[in-house]
């Protein structure tokens, strides 16, 4: 009787994880794959199957959200997973997966799996991944259900070299918090918009613009419209540096903030917020007031084709100034200014005809207002 021993290669694998939330996986077949053995400092571990579910152990090829009480140095040892265990049958849309001991080139993976739309990792915010590293986890978005080989042993794929992806040079907003930061790109061609994976577990940093139909993204299309912005986790502020004349506005509760020049705004998770794009007026114009006649108040509407100093004044029919409504710089766009029928010291004026004058650069126009009591 002859006994032949077949040596099994054992792999040591180590990686560092910060405190709180990270995307992780188990790249080797460890003797003990339980949560407490692999990640002793883990407060919780979640896998994803259409929704987040608590997990007590790691499975081959599966990705997890791990919440760590402290920063942790992970050290695991064991043989590689069986190749068959890393060939996953995944549903359409989003799945959370992890590779084995060999890094995976995302370009080669897309070439071998045409259904693969995008791959995202997480490092203080979602980022497109070019390589899937052992021990980390990644979101895969499939156009249809398909089998995906996560072994990292696909044959080399001969294909044209990809052109380098240029950094976004258009208008953008950076949202920052202690857990990370994300950039929202403004004015992206609709064909280049990429959907984000599902948000991290509740309480951890995430930023996304809601395009409707359940699609969250970090890109806003270059068309007029309004889109809700969802902030999750600890958020401090947002910053922008945009052209002085631009169509972008931020609605925060009842306040509308023109996104022009350099600015910053303190924000908080859960704050109702919308991004709006409105085309700039072709010409400056005084559009009149509504209602008119009015009692006790009306709203005066006007368009500004350019940013500049604006004066909006109400006079009586003798030419005496009644109320200065606007006197200072305003951004290009459409504006509405209310008048409550009171003069400069707050006294209600009598019934009659009044004149509203708009001055903006060389532009001057007047409109007739009728107060009826």
Description of the structure:
The protein contains 2 helices and 32 strands. By secondary structure, the chain is mainly β. The strands form 9 sheets. Strands 18-17-20-25-22-23 form a 6-stranded antiparallel sheet, with no helix packed on it. A 5-stranded mixed sheet has the order 19-16-15-21-24, with no helix packed on it. β26 and β27 (298-304) form a beta hairpin. The longest helix is centred in the N-terminal third of the chain and has 7 residues, at 106-112.
Largest sheet report = 6 strands, antiparallel
Radius of gyration over C-alpha positions, nearest whole angstrom: 29 Å
Shape, principal axes of CA atoms = elongated
Low-confidence parts: 1-7, 155-164
Proportion of residues in helical segments: under 10%
| Computed structural class | mainly beta
Strand order of the largest sheet: 18-17-20-25-22-23
By DSSP (H or I, 4+ residues per run), the number of helices equals 2
Mean pLDDT comes to 89
Strand content: over 45%
Number of strands: 32
Cα-to-Cα separation, first versus last residue: 114 Å
Short précis:
Helices cover 3% and strands 50% of the residues. It is mostly beta strands and 373 residues long. The longest helix is centred in the N-terminal third of the chain and has 7 residues, at 106-112.
Topology:
Elements (H helix, E strand, L loop, with lengths): L9 E8 L2 E5 L10 H4 L3 E7 L3 E3 L9 E5 L3 E8 L7 E4 L2 E5 L6 E2 H7 L3 E7 L3 E3 L2 E2 L5 E5 L3 E4 L22 E6 L2 E9 L17 E7 L2 E3 L1 E3 L3 E8 L4 E6 L5 E5 L2 E4 L2 E6 L6 E5 L7 E6 L7 E7 L3 E9 L4 E10 L2 E7 L12 E9 L2 E9 L2
Parallel strand pairs: 16-19
Antiparallel strand pairs: 1-6, 2-5, 3-4, 3-5, 7-14, 8-13, 9-12, 10-11, 10-13, 15-16, 15-21, 17-18, 17-20, 20-25, 21-24, 22-23, 22-25, 26-27, 27-30, 28-29, 28-31, 31-32
């Amino acid at each position: 009787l002859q006994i032949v021993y077949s040596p099994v290669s054992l792999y040591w694998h180590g990686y560092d994880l910060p405190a709180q939330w990270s995307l992780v996986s188990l790249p080797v077949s460890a003797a003990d794959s339980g949560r407490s053995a692999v990640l002793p400092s883990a407060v919780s571990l979640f896998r994803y199957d259409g929704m987040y579910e608590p997990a007590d152990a790691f499975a081959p090829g599966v990705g997890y959200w791990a919440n760590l009480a402290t920063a942790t140095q992970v050290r695991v040892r064991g043989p590689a997973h069986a190749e068959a265990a890393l060939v996953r049958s995944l549903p359409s849309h989003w799945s959370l997966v992890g590779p084995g001991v060999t890094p995976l080139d995302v370009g080669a993976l897309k070439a071998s799996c045409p259904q693969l739309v995008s791959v995202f990792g997480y490092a203080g915010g979602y980022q497109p991944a070019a390589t899937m590293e052992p021990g980390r986890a990644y979101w895969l978005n499939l156009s249809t259900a398909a089998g995906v080989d996560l072994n990292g042993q696909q044959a080399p794929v001969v294909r044209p070299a990809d052109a380098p992806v240029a950094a976004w040079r258009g208008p953008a907003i950076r949202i920052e918090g202690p857990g990370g930061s994300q950039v929202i790109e403004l004015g992206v061609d609709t064909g280049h918009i990429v959907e984000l994976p599902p948000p991290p577990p509740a309480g951890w940093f995430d930023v996304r613009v809601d395009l409707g139909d359940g699609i969250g993204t970090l890109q806003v299309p270059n068309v007029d419209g309004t889109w809700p912005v969802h902030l999750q986790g600890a958020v401090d502020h947002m910053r922008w540096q945009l052209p002085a004349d631009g169509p972008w506005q931020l609605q925060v509760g009842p306040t509308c903030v023109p996104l022009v020049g350099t600015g910053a705004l303190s924000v908080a998770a859960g704050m109702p917020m919308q991004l709006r794009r409105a085309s700039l007026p072709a010409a400056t114009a005084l559009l009149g007031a509504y209602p008119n006649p009015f009692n006790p108040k009306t709203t005066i509407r006007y368009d500004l084709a350019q940013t500049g100093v604006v004066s909006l004044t109400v006079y009586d029919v003798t030419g005496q100034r009644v109320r200065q409504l606007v006197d200072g710089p305003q951004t290009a766009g459409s504006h509405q200014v209310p008048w409550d029928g009171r003069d400069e010291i707050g006294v209600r004026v009598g019934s009659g005809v009044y004149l509203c004058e708009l001055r903006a650069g060389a532009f001057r126009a007047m409109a007739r207002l009728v107060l009826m009591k």
